[in-house]
Amino acid sequence: MTSEQLFAATSKGPFVLAGPCALESRDVVMTAARHIAEVAKKLELTVIFKGSFDKANRTSVTSFRGPGMDKGLEMLAEVKETFGLPVVTDIHQPEQAAVVAEVADVIQIPAFLCRQTDLLVAAGNTGRVLNVKKGQFLAPWDMANVVSKVKSTGNEKLWLTERGACHGYNNLVVDMRSMPIMASHGCPVVFDATHSVQLPGGQGGCSGGQREFVPTLARAAVVAGASGVFLETHPDPDKALCDGPNSWPLENLEALLRDLMTLWSLKYEC
Fold this sequence. Notes:
By secondary structure, the chain is of the alpha/beta class. It is built from 9 helices and 13 strands. The protein has a single domain, classed as Alpha-Beta Barrel (TIM Barrel), CATH 3.20.20.
């Protein structure tokens, strides 16, 4: 599937980005990808496998960050070849864009970096689909400037992701008005259902989370107009090396996506 075909598919129907927070190991990655591919086929749903080769914004200097770019891209390439899933991963520096684009179908810009002009332009110049997460410090209408930066490269293949806004200390809230507001910028909108229940730095040396609220927020976001949903999912979230408290159990993925598909069907039938 080309970038143009992927973007066209996600512009006409629902889609999901799913996978572990970090590319912990080949075993975790392949176990998750196999299950995700099976669910995607069963539900006839466009699913992009996600996984980060480097989590550069961890709470502590001792926190697990990932396998690094070379090893991480090897894992993602194996997922594509083995299961036929498109893949998405983050970049943090402009010079990573072209290298990552050789493997990734979608390049993701982390929320904390969503205003970095050089990073957005470098990503846009790859011609890949871009997923830019709205910073926890930005209003949804502020993303118009992000859209302008990316489209200045001639790349129109852009998704915008809502992932909650800072509310006091160690807490995030989601304003569901964000979905239609960001959609007004002319881009498909994704809702990050797992990072939105994160409690940033909430456990002192790492972030906490309230995964029990993932279904509630995901359903609400779909009803509010989200075309896609982002879900970090893990075979054993309590043992995940990164963002376990807000990750959704892999075994429960199909049930949640079936619920969301029911809601999406109402939207796309209207």
